């Protein structure tokens, strides 16, 4: 992948993050916990080797929680947006991180390879020549056959930590943001109350009579 395409990819990711993540979170009217849970779910799934199936998984989990576990209900739009973390730019380093972590956990030190070798194998694995859902399924099967359990096992610590940290940071961020907005509203209301009222220039003024006349 060329430096130009990488630079364009990161710019696109930054723009999409602001438009699809930050703005919806700030404008949401739900409690902060509702949005924070959406961030946690989205980040958890984005840090697993399930690209192409993450949005359906988000919707499936959301329907289950909405129907059966109401206190765990979350914002599905925010969760789906956070799955953008795993994309064509971030996929190779993320999957390499998962695989290396998994092999370390499983004690397979002798099978650790460099990132360049891994990227070449990953590119060959994901080139299926198929379209649509068949291509996604073929890619998932190919990943499991090529990298197997190390990639899956290695993704779990990152998914758990990433989802938990994402939930906590989003909750603190929204609580502070809403507290600042509430303080601004209070200050504005107080300012409007104590500000001296100005006469309407469109109304005629009534002259005051002299008490000594």
Please sum up the structure shown.
This protein is 71% helix and 0% strand.
The biggest sheet amounts to: none
Q: Radius of gyration over alpha carbons?
A: 27 Å
What structural class do the secondary elements suggest? mainly alpha
Name the helix and strand elements from N-terminus to C-terminus, one letter apiece. HHHHHHHH
How much of the polypeptide forms β-strand, as a percent range?
A: under 5%
Secondary structure tally, helices: 8
Percent helix range:
over 70%
Based on Cα principal axes, name the global outline: elongated
Q: How many distinct beta strands?
A: 0
Uncertain segments are none
Distance between the termini: 94 Å
Mean pLDDT: 79
Description:
The longest helix is centred in the C-terminal third of the chain and has 47 residues, at 148-194. The protein is elongated, with a radius of gyration of 27 Å. The chain has helices spanning 3-27, 32-46, 54-68, 76-82, 91-105, 115-126, 132-146, 148-194. The chain has 213 residues and is mostly helical. The mean pLDDT is 79.
Q: How would the blueprint of this fold be written?
A:
Elements: H1 3-27, H2 32-46, H3 54-68, H4 76-82, H5 91-105, H6 115-126, H7 132-146, H8 148-194
Question: What structural keywords apply?
Answer:
213 residues; mainly alpha; 8 helices; 71% helix
